[in-house]
Design goal:
7 strands, 7-stranded mixed beta sheet, Rossmann fold, alpha/beta
């Protein structure tokens, strides 16, 4: 039986699309939630036949946990078993991370443990790294520090910029994320 899965997004949803279109036997995307009502990925999810829900974080002000309780309620009401973060640009509180521990997955644009957080491509270039890539990992309370489920690597090319690296890493993400997510769902 496929695991009922939700994806949390904040933007255009390219990794969301990759997860939906992968047609894996282990999971089924049944819900997409965005913290931004204007996120392009919401319309894309609907076009792909998936329920899409906006839960705007702004009315909650600085009370991040109250926002997450609303998201959690939506997930539980739909019988969600696994959650994928795909460009969800909010730091999660311990409440939400603990609630979904072992079932909450993220994709990060670096070869963790190198470069947790933001600006990963510029940081890799500044360090003179010969290779770069992406990591799928379980989410923990510490940012980008959870158990690694898989990585994809590529060479850094002469003349690469943060933008060219970002575009090439994104292609790797689209292949890696569905594969690693399916492996987790089969457990």
């Amino acid at each position: 039986m496929k695991k009922r899965t939700a994806i949390l997004i904040s933007g255009r949803g390219s990794n969301m699309r990759a997860l939906i279109e992968a047609k894996q036997d282990a999971y089924e995307i049944v819900l997409v939630v965005s913290n931004r009502p204007d996120a392009e990925g919401l319309e894309l999810a609907r076009a792909l036949g998936v329920e899409a829900l906006a839960i705007d974080h702004k009315p909650f002000g600085k009370d991040r946990e109250a926002f997450e309780r609303e998201v959690d309620a939506a997930l539980r009401a739909r019988g969600i078993e696994l959650v994928a973060l795909a460009g969800f640009m909010r730091l999660l509180t311990p409440y939400f991370v603990r609630r979904w521990q072992g079932r909450l997955v993220n994709i990060h644009p670096s070869l963790l443990p190198k470069y947790p957080g933001t600006d990963t491509h510029a940081r890799a270039l500044a360090a003179g790294d010969a290779e770069h890539g992406c990591t799928v990992h379980l989410v923990t309370e510490e940012i980008d520090a959870g158990q690694i489920l898989g990585q994809a690597r590529m060479d850094v090319l002469p003349g690469d910029t943060p933008q060219t690296l970002a575009a090439r890493v994104l292609e790797l993400e689209h292949e890696l994320y569905p594969r690693c997510f399916a492996e987790l769902a089969r457990r």
